[in-house]
Amino acid sequence: MLVKRILLAVISIAVGAAVTTAITFAIGTTPAVYGFGYFFFTTLCLAIALGIWLDKFMNTELLPK
Predict the structure, then answer these.
(1) Where are the domains of the chain?
(2) Taking the alpha carbons of 20, 24, 25, 31 in that order, is the dihedral positive or negative?
């Protein structure tokens, strides 16, 4: 169960960072210009949203039913 939860966290953070990078390039800037704080919190929000969704399908039971 612990391995599944760690895998969920790694996948969520990696996809969140990739999507945030894609968004910054799509709006015509770079992550460095976008700023570390904004990049961090955008990645965090996307990772949490994806983590909630993945929790259901990976059956890690992090969230109560």
Answers:
(1) 2-58
(2) negative
